Automatic annotation (TrEMBL):
Belongs to the phosphohexose mutase family. Residues 23-162, 200-305, 313-425 form the Alpha-D-phosphohexomutase alpha/beta/alpha domain. Keywords: Cytoplasm, Magnesium, Metal-binding, Phosphoprotein. It comes from Rousettus aegyptiacus (Egyptian fruit bat). Gene3D superfamilies: Alpha-D-Glucose-1,6-Bisphosphate, subunit A, domain 3, Alpha-D-phosphohexomutase, C-terminal domain. GO terms for cellular component: adherens junction; cell-substrate junction; cytosol; sarcolemma. This is Phosphoglucomutase 5. InterPro entries: A-D-PHexomutase_a/b/a-I, A-D-PHexomutase_a/b/a-I/II/III, A-D-PHexomutase_a/b/a-II, A-D-PHexomutase_a/b/a-III, A-D-PHexomutase_C_sf, A-D-PHexomutase_CS, Alpha-D-phosphohexomutase_SF, PGM. Residues 1-26 are annotated as: Disordered. The lineage of its organism: Eukaryota, Metazoa, Chordata, Craniata, Vertebrata.
Amino acid sequence: MEGSPIPVLTVPTAPYEDQRPTGGGGLRRPTGLFEGQRNYLPNFIQSVLSSIDLRDRQGCTMVVGSDGRYFSRTATEIVVQMAAANGIGRLIIGQNGILSTPAVSCIIRKIKAAGGIILTASHCPGGPGGEFGVKFNVANGGPAPDVVSDKIYQISKTIEEYAICPDLRIDLSRLGRQEFDLENKFKPFRVEIVDPVDIYLNLLRTIFDFNAIKSLLTGPGQLKIRVDAMHGVMGPYVRKVLCDELGAPANSAINCVPLEDFGGQHPDPNLTYATTLLEAMKGGEYGFGAAFDADGDRYMILGQNGFFVSPSDSLAIIAANLSCIPYFRQIGVRGFGRSMPTSMALDRVAKAMKVPVYETPAGWRFFSNLMDSGRCSLCGEESFGTGSDHLREKDGLWAVLIWLSIIAARKQSVEEIVRDHWAKFGRHYYCRFDYEGLEPKTTYYIMRDLEALVTDKSFIGQQFAVGSHVYSVAKTDSFEYVDPVDGTVTKKQGLRIIFSDASRLIFRLSSSSGLRATIRLYAESYERDPTGHDQEPQAVLSPLIAIALKISQIHERTGRRGPTVIT
């Protein structure tokens, strides 16, 4: 800290009408919009900072991280300059700007920060032609609740100016403290560059039996693993935790260098995009495979020969085996949470364990309230996200360590564990079909007409015959959630059709990018008989899908011949 104080400037601006966070305090848009539209990023950052009450903001500590995608360095610099100008006292930033979403949540909670800003578009592609995003996490370490997102949006619609210190420059590569003297500020502004993994790793050590996992990965008959970081933020975490700490060979980890465009790939851990890992696992050399998305909160599990563990099954199997984890043996299990579209496999485990299940809308922010109130110990979503009350975010690496712990304790393969689970609880066949990149107006009318159809009283009892199958409608609704903690009501969270055999069809509108919309179609069918557990999910679910296509007319109304992605 030397020379004259750095000036704080107030810059006039004009609002944008499209800066409504899509949930959890996040704004996700094409990178070109952030990069090219004048003041687009500063407007939103100012709206986020202004959403924090002035008395809480002045002198407070915040955490800043990114998944390393294109435009992250420029955006990080702007966030730092604006945080300083808005009275933030201290920023904790991952080295080179890198911090996974779970690590941001961990650090916020560890140091009792006022919140955090995460620069990520999650599993969306990066690069100049990709997507960019800004996400605000609050003081509990979780995504901003809707009341905060609404406040951010209201500020963004009336913003007239933003504060910034354009001459403030930080060195993101140098670990340690950097201090800056600002004009009209009594105390210096402080930036601390931290190792992106260390604090999070220390938390993991308190949760798991690292010796048991290390023995699995290094001892006689060691489990050979293959882990794909997909050139996102998780590379340093995989190397430090799985390789350096737990002894997995260095060549177990692939695509571990964070790249601005994720190597030109879609950093989404599913069978459609994690094909490099899938092909490696099909060869039979590896007994366990995992992949992570760009910011490290989503994951996929594969067994030997490419055996796929669906996210809903993974959640249920983790729930059924929590006694393998020291953390849960110590604190116990209070309840489970799942998003409404997630399969009901978790519910069967909960019933056997005699613990409650909370069914919420999609979005991790709904779980945070449950965990803060002590109601929920484990939660998950069908979109490859699982987590517990150790954080307030879904956590990909935590889930992988859970699986390795279960394998070490049970001395079974991934496939054996899954098949044993099906034999005990039955199998929930499940698929999600995404119709992406649709015109928002088109999706609005499709969902409006569907709601009118399925919520009409005459729809109850209708029968649909498809081949040898006859499905009778037992219940329908437009899902709404009443938060058991604060009574907040969240409406229109998806259309449900539940048949007399407990099969389900769900239609849900998603608009994470804000400019185009996605309709997600979910189908679920339960099979108790073990002789029926080896069928292909799409074959089992094809009659339900036929019903869904007939009543929605989605192909005719969108001009699509099929979904963009099937998971």
